[in-house]
């Protein structure tokens, strides 16, 4: 594949897209203004917060996990 030709084709496509975007923006201005803001779903993004009980459950579960893991490492280290 000829890279030079591929780059030239991409530049030509970019120019076409820029012209289309400019014409759409012009139509938008002529039609009366700005784009209305996207509706807010009101949902929170990210992790949910945990209450005290949930935190204690996770803590107990992780203590058990790490204890079992340490026990596994100790038994692996003692075998030749």
Structural notes for this entry:
The longest helix is centred in the first third of the chain and has 29 residues, at 3-31. Helices cover 70% and strands 0% of the residues. The chain has helices at residues 3-31, 52-78. It is mostly helical. The chain folds into 2 domains: 1-31; 51-80. It is elongated, with a radius of gyration of 30 Å. The protein contains 2 helices and no strands.
Shape: elongated
Helical content stands at over 70%
Structural class: mainly alpha
Number of helices: 2
Separation, N- and C-terminal Cα atoms = 57 Å
Name the average pLDDT.
Answer: 85
Strand content: under 5%
The largest β sheet comes out as: none
N-to-C SSE string, H for helix and E for strand: HH
Low-confidence stretches: none
Q: Over the alpha carbons, how many angstroms does the gyration radius reach?
A: 30 Å
Give the count of structural domains.
2
Beta-strand segment tally: 0
Question: What's a quick, concise take on this entry?
Answer:
The chain folds into two domains: 1-31; 51-80. 70% of the residues lie in helices and 0% in strands.
Topology:
Layout: H1 3-31, H2 52-78
Keywords:
single chain; 80 residues; mainly alpha; 2 domains; 2 helices
């Amino acid at each position: 594949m000829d890279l030079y030709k591929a780059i030239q084709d991409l530049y030509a496509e970019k120019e076409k897209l820029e012209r289309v975007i400019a014409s759409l923006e012009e139509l938008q201005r002529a039609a009366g203004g700005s784009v209305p803001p996207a509706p807010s779903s009101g949902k929170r993004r990210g992790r949910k917060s945990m209450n005290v009980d949930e935190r204690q459950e996770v803590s107990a579960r992780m203590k058990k996990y790490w204890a079992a893991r340490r026990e596994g490492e100790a038994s692996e280290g003692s075998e030749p």
